[in-house]
Amino acid sequence: MPHVNRRWQKSYYYHITSRSNWKEPLFRSDDDFVYFLQLLDEANKKYPFQLVSYVLMKTHFHLLLFSNTQSYSNIMFLEKKKYATFFNKKYNTRGHLFEKRFFAKPASTPRTLLHMSRYIHFNPVEIHSVESPKDYQWSSYPLFIQSSENSLTPPYINFTPLLRSFTGTYHQRKMQYIQWCNTN
């Protein structure tokens, strides 16, 4: 049965998540996490996009993605196909690595975008992996904490949309986002 095309709109951010088959580890080593992030960089060169937030968990990942030029389906197809090929070769496995295609939900308002980002950043805390999102290395949150207006982050990372709901300097808006996340 063919896949039904997903609805994609240029002006929306999408919360995308995908889980491993049978809740088996998707990332077995730090090198696996690093490779997945390298693939995001490669995918960005082919299909330009921005990530506002991301987290890579042991059995799944979350991305808060925006693209004006390409459907998220193209980006996810490339990312998941290359990662599955890498994983199956590295661990001498066969078959589907991912449970389904992926889940995608649009962020239709700035408030929804903030809530989605907070959910993504606090995912490791919710499952008791760490006490604070700043302590989880496979997330955009530590990058966010360290960021400044002129900091070097991967080219596909753009925190500005998270800060639009707040006022003041970059640093003040960043601190307001952090405070908002910790109180909601």
TrEMBL record:
It comes from the Bacteria. One of its GO terms (molecular function) is transposase activity. Residues 9-123 form the Transposase IS200-like domain. It holds the Pfam family Y1_Tnp. Signal peptide: none annotated. One of its GO terms (biological process) is DNA transposition. This is Transposase.
